[in-house]
Amino acid sequence: MIGWIRLFLAELKKEHRNMFHSRLVYFSLLIWPVIGFITSYYSFKPFSLNDNSPITRFVPPDHLVLFLLTGYLAYLFFWSLVQSAWQMGYERQSGTLEMIFLTPVHRLALIYGRSFSSLLESVWLFFTFVIMILFIVEGIQVDGWWSFPFAFFILFISAVIWGGFLNAIFLFSRDAGFFYTILDEPMLIFSGVRIPPLAFPIWAKGLALFFPLTYTLHIIRMLVMEAATFIEILPSFTVLLVVLLVLINISAFVIKKAENHMKQTGSMVLF
Amino acid sequence: MLIVDGVSKVYQSKVREKLWKTTYKEVKAVEDLSFQIEPGKIIGLLGMNGAGKTTTIKMCTTLLEPNSGSITVDGYDAVKDDRKVKSLVNMIAGGERMLYWRLTGRENLNYFGNLYGIKEATLKQRIDLLLKEVGLEDAADTPVEQYSKGMKQRLQIARGLINDPKYLFLDEPTLGLDAPIAKHLRSYVKTLAKEKNKGVLLTSHYIDEVEELCDEVYILDKGRLILHDTPERLTASVFKENSLHIWVPALPNRTQKELEKLLRTYHAKMEIKQSIDLEEIEIIIKTEQEITSSVLALLSNHQLTVLKLVVEQPKLEDAILHLAERRIG
Amino acid sequence: MLQTAKATFHRNMISMIRAYPWSFFLSHILSGIYTVLFAYFTYTYVFEGVLDSRFSNYAGTNDYLSYVFLGGALFSFAVSTLMNVSRSLITEQREGTLEALLLTPSSRKGYFLGNVTQQITRTLLEFLIILIFAFLLGLQFKHIHFLSAIFIWFCAVIGFFSQALLLGSVMLYFRDTYITQNTLFVTMAFVSGVTFPIGYLPEWVAPLSWMMPLTPALEAFRHSVLEGQGLAASGSQLLHLSFLSFLYLIVGSLGIKKTEKIVVEKIFS
Which of A47, A93, A180 to mutate to test the interface with C (most CBs of C within 10 A)? Predict the structure, then answer.
């Protein structure tokens, strides 16, 4: 357990030093998403947004901004982890990772420590967004004060576990860029960041089920847009927990498999 | 003739103090440097890291522009007529850079030859000849990424000769090469100068290399020229100070006095170091003359056992440090 | 100049065949396809084809899908061209061949010309694949004025090429590719009328739209493909595009010339 915590803290410090002052963070986690968010808002302009618009079946047109904001916020959390996992791929190439694997540290601690710490770096963004939501945007409906921290908690936990999964994958793949292409934009489309998954045809709904962000986003929108009570979200929450558990198991499996592979062949590249 | 006349180069480097605040720091890389390279001559440029050797080469090959002074190559100005100068000079640097790893040796040479605007028939002939001269005929059609370090270095040389330059610059050409390959390279450089009448400028860390090849040597320190001479005279004046290290179990006062007296007659300097465990004493003697036997005779007269004896040849670094100190003093 | 261009074309072709940049190729195609797919989803499933009354006025057509599909395809073509050309010098620097290149008296214009023509062989393929995908989802070619479409596409290439020179010198100066290029690309997606007509944008964005060669290129391209108009109908767009191309070509060439020197100094200072 002490090893867990120590590694956790070590990763936290390293990530902080690596990331905090780098301009990359401001661009990739603030400027690009804000422009992306505005672009997707304007992409709805060509459509009819009055009260008879077909979109009212899913979202009231005047709640569209809130809908997109929650979507982008959650997506941002998940995305910041894609980026951090990607850098892990570079570390592998430069050989620092093999040094880590020489130590007897718990492998899962490594990937979650990393994931957690890179997320902490972007927490300030979360608050910027929350303030925007509270003061600027119409359409917030919550059951009580607990809804916000609870939404945040769900978002944080699922993002860390998603990040851990990505770290495990990127750790052992030759072409991280390829996975990035596969995972990034489909997540944006299928998990309901910009359009409600309910509107999807059946095959796309099926695809949506593969992205944990879909479940997370569903609960968060219930919490802040539909004033859902805890009882109301309980079924979705249970599903999310199951999904996250499966994801943890897959990550652990990948790491175990990859380490065995490394011991046999001397190569860290699994796929 | 390549004439470098009163050339200075100042770098401005950014120092980032805070996130949005930067200040500039000026570094004088080369200061008021003048020298000449004649066809058929090999010039050595010596100095420690940061002395300005590479900067000098980059300026002569038009990669950098001097802040003041002028460089002319056969009458063409390196700044104004840089294209003309580029076709007259070339540079070979140590290491594995400056080649396209995905292309084969022949394809690399072909590409660079085209960039020099060489006609196809001439180019083809020259490539075959160069590949033969550097011994890469068999590997000519293998991608460079499969080459060994020495092969890459040899291809570099072929690349540096692809435009048949009149003046050739070699920046640490034997760095990291195995001894036999380095030796071969040295004799090749000699042939280039003596038989093909090329002017060669060479920088090196290895004093032997400079001694063997160069007709003249320039020593730079912190961007300034501190010495210009033939290698023979340099070794005679600067590099003759040997240091003699002798380890003894103890050094009685009387012996030390006698030793000092002896050394005074030879104008030698002495330094005494005690080991941490107090079990041995190191005597360091710096001298320009051969006095090892007299020193040993004195010690044995005093019944002292010599535990270890090392004679050190001067290192280039030491010599330059020495020169630099002398200049300041 | 032509000898340099030819040699560079040849060199890049060999490198490309030996190690095909699959992940770039794939990610360009996929990002184009996602734009197309996203528009299709929004139009078909969320809004069931009900458009805003101003759309046809702003866009010059009622065919939303074709409008956005062309936007997505040309946008991803612009991104590919910009990336490939602007990164070429910085790649030379990273792989350690920049000095060897600068040592030669070769023409820089020839070098870039060789680069862009070689890379078009790849980006054109990406462009066509995206168009075919869009065609399957309902892109209309009924009215296309073929000759003028090709001519406009060619002018667009020149525009993107000039812009890439400028981008390349900025990237070389900052020795950064990731931040600079992505900032440009997200901005282009926002202001150039890729997924919605620029008429919807607030006025203060107009100067930004105006600065992107993609804006007039897209307008003219849509005129010829969707409305079947000849070159005369796109006169003002072509003038706008040529002006930007000319401006960026001059500024970009000067910029490259200046930054080359700075970069060599930076390596050694």
Answer: A47
